Amino acid sequence: MSIKRVTEAELAWVNRQYEQIGFMPSKLKNEIIAIVMSQGHYAGVGRLVMLNAHEAEMGGIYILDAFRGQSLAHELVSFLVEESKRQNLKTVYCIPFEELQHFYEKFGFHAFDASASNANPRILEKYHWCLKTYDKNVLLLKLTHDG
């Protein structure tokens, strides 16, 4: 298992995966995108979308069916959390499906009230889009880095 940052040449592969599962496409301009590899094969993808200099959204976490059950999602989220620290981000939001709440809590994410006055407007817009778009319920989670 290894994790690498996506290059321009790999972006088409990333967006094919996202298109298949109904996720928004990625672009490198304001994103840090990571691919998790297993035995030399692309096994999954995830991203940090920069909202501003201090906030990002972690999302697009997807492990291909053939590679599930290998703890690759855990490795990928760990990598992105560490990357958010390297980028000196203060806040990382996440909008996972409800059944993934406990998974994300292991990394320090906690439920965040969408009506809070300090909520990033871009993340609120995406959260409400997800609530309308997906058949499954989604949550708004937040990770805060001190310092």
UniProtKB/TrEMBL annotation:
* The N-acetyltransferase domain, residue ranges: 1-146
Signal peptide (residue range): none
Swiss-Prot/TrEMBL keywords: Transferase
- Superkingdom field: Bacteria
Query: GO: which molecular function terms?
Result: acyltransferase activity, transferring groups other than amino-acyl groups
Q: Does the keyword Repeat apply?
A: no
Q: Which InterPro entries match?
A: Acyl_CoA_acyltransferase, GNAT_dom
List the CDD domains.
NAT_SF (cd04301)
Q: Name one Pfam family in it.
A: Acetyltransf_1
Q: Does the keyword Iron-sulfur apply?
A: no
Protein name (Swiss-Prot/TrEMBL) = Acetyltransferase
Q: Which organism is it from?
A: Paenibacillus glucanolyticus
